[in-house]
Amino acid sequence: MREPDFWWRAPGLAAMLASPLGTVYGRIAAARLRRPGRTLPVPVVCVGNLTLGGAGKTPTAIAIARLLQGAGLKPIFLTRGYKGRLKGPLTVTPGAAAADVGDEPLLLARTAPTILARDRVAGAQAALAAGARVIVMDDGLQNPSLAKSLALVVLDGRRGIGNGCVFPAGPLRLGLEAQLDVAHALLVIGPPSDLALSVLDATRRRGLPVFSGRVLPDPAAVAALRGKRLLAYAGIADPGKFFATLANAGLAPVRTAHFADHHAFTETEAARLIADAAADGLTLVTTEKDFLRLQGDPALAALAAASATLPVGLVIDDTAGLRAVLAARTGLRL
Fold this sequence. Notes:
ATP binds at residues 51-58. This protein is α/β, with parallel strands linked by helices.
């Protein structure tokens, strides 16, 4: 689904017309969120966000897992495999097809063992059977089935919560206060805009810790692309963030093409991207998530072969502070 533009503007007529549905949706979701979850014998760290679409959950989950690994622990990721065909529980292998498991689980599986399960409790049991010392959930803040030792909310500083309305009137999954009721800390990625200030204020009023971080591109990938004229394409929640990352690295694309989040590229689209790049002497570049969705499909093999990627990683400004919160909430020695 491509997000409506009005989600990211001040509330207007479109938001007003959709707000009755948002009220009903929000009340149902809030009531569900209050249900008690299953308590596990190991800590559960949930990395979630307040809105539909991307905020930086997957890079944050990877950063958390690496922090845990640095302390000698064995984290296992738990993910539902959004847009994948398989329901699980199953262990995600790096060579799996994105059409089966989704793109995000493939990114996670590069860092730590990853369990895919639409049923979070069944997935957690599979993670325990696999020897998990701690479970890191990529998404699931609004799913009450598991009790969370730490619920870390990730917020895109630039986009914030948009117009502040609940779906379908806006991007919020349910009301802000109801979601903060189950949160333990906030991580803001990128400088906060006016669209993020209400979340920062509400979080601080509750006395919850607030952290900041930055998504930075891989230096080797930047060096490899330096001096090339680029056609950048992306099918993520906020393609503009990818294009801005390129520009901030001195790699401003000549042309861009954006698609809906988790877009399944067609053979026709692949051929057009290749032709457009060849016509203007451009190098194709995309995100790691988009590239993973090209792999394993013979119809997209030519686009995969012609495309470079720009890997990114999360840098947390106060790693020691986040480590202290993580240790206090989970009881782990970090």
